[in-house]
Amino acid sequence: MKYCLMEKLKAWNISIKNKLEISLPTKYPNTTIKQLKYLKIDIYKITYNKDSINLVINQEDYESIKKYYHPHIIKFIGPKGWINTIKQLKRNIILLIFIIICITLYTKIIINIEIFTNNQYLYKKILNELDKENITKYTLIKDSKTIETIKKNILSRNKDILEWINIKRVGMTYIINLEPKIVKEPSNSNTYCHIISTKDAIITKIYSSEGIELKEINDSVKKGDILISGDIKKDEETKGTTCATGSVWGQTWYTINIEIPKTYNKKEKSNKHKYNILLKYKNRNKSILKSRFKDYEPTDKKIINIFGFEIYLRKEEKIVLKKEQYTEDELNIQINNLIEEKMKINLGDKSKIIDKKVLKKVDKDSKIYLEVFIVAEEEISKSIDATLIPKE
Amino acid sequence: MQLRNINSYINSKTYNINLTPNKIYINNYNDILEIKENIISIDFNDFFLNINGNDFKVVKMLNNEVLFNGKIESMEYIYKK
């Protein structure tokens, strides 16, 4: 017990000093140790080798040993134990304080506010309201009771535009979900309007809720023809007017020219890959290292997210591009995709292609040139102020 | 050991010789006179201590304490006159 305690106390006492493990070449270790004793060198551990001894000594004793022997340093041994821990903490106190502040900030500060709405007016309005309630970026988080009060306040002040609001905290972000109040537009029954055709077409569908339908399904119409009239007639006599409402769909025709290359670059993954670090902040990406491959396919894996900064580990897999010729089937698929893409731009999402026929196909150089006839179905109606149309 | 005795124990100048199997721990000695594989000779205030045995090796050697490993066969006290 006494021995152990003594050892421990001594260890505590000496552990503050930095130590060195050195190797001392000697054929007579006992003589060498005795000589070191005369030099008043403290030796904490001795390990015996064939032609040398390893000694753990105080760093400050190294120079005096060097005067008489030819030692070489094996390793530095820092102070150990709880004293060392305290020393390390003292040494890194600024880092420690910084970490504590960061953790506090991470749990207590809001750095972003996200409002989910497509309505720009409502977005700005709610942002102002939140500002009034002191919910802004880089402010302390509010407790749930305060949030509830704020929600009630915002709702009461914006009864006419807001149906419901929810404020939710996710990490350092407030997420605001809104439900705008749907205000029914007053009926414009007093106005006088017609539904007219915007294109030459054959009518396929008519949806009418107000006004008199002047055309029927399968009727051929020209651009500008009145499809649904705002005139309310009885026995060929106009009794009144209304704003015709409805939508009319029709079959339309187009001729489009497309060109498509006969070859394409086929991507083939090679076994080579490199890693990179990617920083993302507010949709801005920045790679730490310059990409070493000309063509590569990236795969990102999120490592950490600090204060909106996202750090990703990016795996860049080298890609070899090979020129390959389309097969007949692949070429047809490509042509179809291209036609649909082109028509979607012209007609919009709601319309559809009913039929298509290739009128002309020219194979020239490395490309194929096509003239295609398209039959489509699309909305052809448009509301127009009836007073602008001259009466017959 | 009571805590109040620790201070006096640390500051004590009295020698200590602790024997454990194949280990000898000595503190508060004056000098080490001889270190050989079969004999260790240590000088204390009042006497010399000769330890006989085999395979003696110094494991630790500080200013006033030393730890040996080895097989102890006999110990001899020679009092100073």
How do the helices and strands line up, and which of them pair or pack?
The complex is a heterodimer of chains A (392) and B (81).
Chain A: H1 2-14, E1 19-25, H2 29-38, E2 43-48, E3 52-58, H3 62-68, E4 72-77, H4 81-91, H5 93-108, E5 109-110, E6 112-116, H6 120-132, E7 139-140, H7 144-157, E8 162-170, E9 173-180, E10 193-197, E11 201-210, E12 212-213, E13 220-221, E14 226-229, E15 231-234, E16 237-241, E17 245-261, E18 263-281, E19 284-287, E20 296-306, E21 309-325, H8 328-347, E22 352-364, E23 367-379, E24 381-385
Parallel strand pairs in A: 6-9
Antiparallel strand pairs in A: 1-3, 1-4, 2-3, 5-7, 8-9, 10-14, 10-24, 11-13, 11-17, 12-14, 15-16, 17-23, 18-19, 18-21, 20-21, 22-23
Chain B: H1 6-11, E1 16-20, E2 23-27, E3 31-35, E4 39-43, E5 47-61, E6 65-79
Antiparallel strand pairs in B: 1-2, 2-6, 3-4, 4-5, 5-6
Straight-line distance between termini of chain A? 122 Å
Query: Please, what is the oligomeric state?
Result: heterodimer
Structural class of chain B: mainly beta
* Count of discrete alpha- or pi-helical segments spanning 4 or more residues of chain B: 1
Rg estimate of chain B, integer Å? 13 Å
H/E order of the elements of chain B? HEEEEEE
Rg of chain A computed from alpha carbons, rounded to a whole number of angstroms: 41 Å
Summed over residues and divided by their number, the pLDDT of chain B gives a mean of 86
Q: Main sheet of chain B, how many strands, which sense, barrel?
A: 6 strands, antiparallel
Average per-residue pLDDT of chain A, rounded, comes to: 82
Q: Compute the number of strand runs of chain B.
A: 6
- The N- and C-terminal alpha carbons of chain B lie at a distance of 35 Å
